[in-house]
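RECORD TYPE: inverse folding
INPUT: structure tokens
STRUCTURE:
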């Protein structure tokens, strides 16, 4: 009898017991202390959990630790929710806490025995981990300044809420071939990056003032590295039914034979976009209007940093860079203290691992921003800090080869010190393995974890990728260079590249970086 493939094993596990049904087992394991069944560990993902790397775990500690991801719907964290998140970090996660590229927050060192209390705490402030991971619709991403930005095309808050409500814990969608990522954009900067979503909706204002949504499908990174295809337009009321129809097609017809060929984009490649669109149209009670591409802002400029007056009278929002999403218990405590001091009650996370304080009183917003800066939360970040992202990395991720969060932090600090007057926005991504969790293929400088030779030994290091960006149909993915280096040499290598650029005749960094692929 042939051995099960990875895909066969996962599909069998899902068929034998729905991931949603593992909750009762989680409580049982927590109470009895019995060893967790390996197949239930897979199902734990449906409640936001992944086993973590033992890299930082004491060799005498046999505990099974998890990373726990909490969904922040719409990216929102209210002050009471922030306090609960702080409590979880302090009591159960050894002070860890990081914001993700899907507007979520995640912790490490989570023990099964503590999950009932963690779930109880989250429930007190209406947060949850359901469908934060697994083969399900993930958190719906959107612009963090929905409803308060004077320049927005439209406020998509209600649509995002309806989509999250339609998906969350829905057994009709609890067994998809792989993860399924949806985004909704009403922002004039398209800051949720529709090009890399499985399904996205971009608001467009018609000549008569009415709003319609451009529908795009099949985008992705990693094994499904392709730009989403625009298939037409729908009215605001048609967004949710179309999203359900696409998800149903994906569930019923998605390719389940191989895990690395199971995303929606792979199905579209198999069928062709015409067949996919025709099949979708057959399931709808309305017509998708003919496609017509629109222009999009380059991803380098899709951001909301600084202090801006809100649509809310007397309020301003403050867009801040954290540096690779790391916040930790100390950063959470600082945020809570300053929000209370300046009478702010809400923040939202971004798809670039940063945050935006939503409701700072305008009269004290500048002072608020200055105090945030004193804690490393930058409303006016350097061109290096603003758009640097990093995945979980070697310390906690089982797949990582190299460390990331610390590397990203020290790299940014090094570049800021060496080039304090650097005038171009630089997008940087530090990834611990060949996967694309921190989106290395759509930035100026992508560092991809790999093993390299140094002094005759194989050590953790990085491969340099350059030249990626998003801009609708004009988007380009990063290209590999022959440059590889040890993790410890990161600062020196990137410094030398920036220095070489500044001493060249090139007008912009991207054009210069592309010379490195030769």
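DESIGNED SEQUENCE:
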């Amino acid at each position: 009898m042939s051995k099960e493939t990875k895909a066969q094993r996962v599909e069998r596990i899902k068929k034998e017991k729905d991931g949603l049904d593992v909750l009762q087992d989680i409580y049982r394991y927590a109470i009895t202390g019995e060893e967790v069944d390996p197949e239930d560990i897979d199902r734990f993902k449906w409640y936001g959990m992944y086993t973590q790397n033992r890299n930082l775990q004491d060799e005498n500690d046999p505990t099974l630790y998890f990373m726990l991801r909490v969904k922040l719907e719409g990216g929102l964290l209210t002050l009471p929710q922030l306090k609960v998140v702080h409590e979880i970090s302090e009591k159960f996660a050894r002070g860890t806490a990081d914001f993700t590229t899907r507007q979520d927050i995640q912790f490490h060192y989570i023990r099964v025995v503590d999950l009932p209390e963690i779930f109880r705490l989250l429930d007190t402030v209406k947060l949850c981990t359901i469908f934060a991971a697994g083969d399900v619709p993930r958190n719906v991403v959107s612009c963090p300044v929905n409803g308060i930005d004077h320049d927005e095309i439209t406020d998509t808050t209600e649509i995002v809420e309806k989509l999250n409500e339609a998906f969350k814990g829905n057994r009709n969608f609890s067994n998809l071939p792989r993860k399924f990522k949806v985004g909704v954009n009403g922002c004039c900067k398209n800051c949720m990056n529709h090009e890399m979503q499985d399904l996205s909706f971009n608001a467009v204002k018609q000549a008569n003032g009415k709003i319609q949504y451009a529908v795009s499908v099949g985008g992705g990174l990693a094994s499904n590295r392709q730009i989403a295809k625009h298939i037409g337009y729908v009215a605001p009321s048609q967004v949710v039914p179309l999203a359900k129809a696409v998800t149903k097609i994906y569930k019923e017809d998605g390719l389940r034979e191989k895990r690395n060929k199971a995303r929606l984009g792979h199905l579209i490649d198999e069928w062709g976009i015409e067949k996919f669109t025709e099949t979708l149209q057959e399931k709808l009670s309305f017509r998708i209007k003919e496609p017509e591409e629109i222009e999009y802002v380059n991803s380098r400029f899709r951001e909301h940093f600084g202090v801006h007056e809100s649509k809310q009278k007397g309020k301003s929002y403050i867009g801040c860079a954290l540096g690779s999403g790391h916040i930790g218990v100390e950063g959470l405590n600082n945020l809570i203290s300053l929000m209370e001091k300046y009478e702010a009650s809400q923040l939202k996370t971004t798809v670039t691992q940063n945050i935006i304080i939503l409701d700072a009183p305008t009269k004290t917003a500048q002072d608020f921003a200055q105090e945030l800066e004193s804690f490393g939360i930058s409303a006016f970040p350097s061109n290096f800090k603003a758009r640097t992202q990093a995945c979980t990395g070697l310390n906690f991720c089982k797949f990582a080869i190299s460390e990331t969060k610390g590397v990203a932090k020290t790299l940014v600090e090094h570049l800021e010190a060496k080039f304090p007057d650097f005038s171009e926005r630089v997008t940087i991504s530090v990834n611990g393995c060949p996967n694309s969790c921190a989106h290395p293929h759509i930035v100026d400088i992508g560092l991809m974890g790999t093993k390299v030779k140094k002094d005759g030994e194989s050590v953790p290091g990085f491969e340099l990728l350059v030249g990626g960006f998003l801009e609708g149909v004009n988007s380009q993915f990063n290209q590999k260079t022959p440059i590889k280096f040890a993790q410890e040499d990161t600062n020196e290598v990137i410094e030398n590249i920036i220095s070489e650029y500044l001493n060249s005749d090139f007008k912009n960094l991207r054009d210069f970086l592309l010379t490195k692929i030769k």
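NOTES: Residues 6-74+99-124 form one domain.
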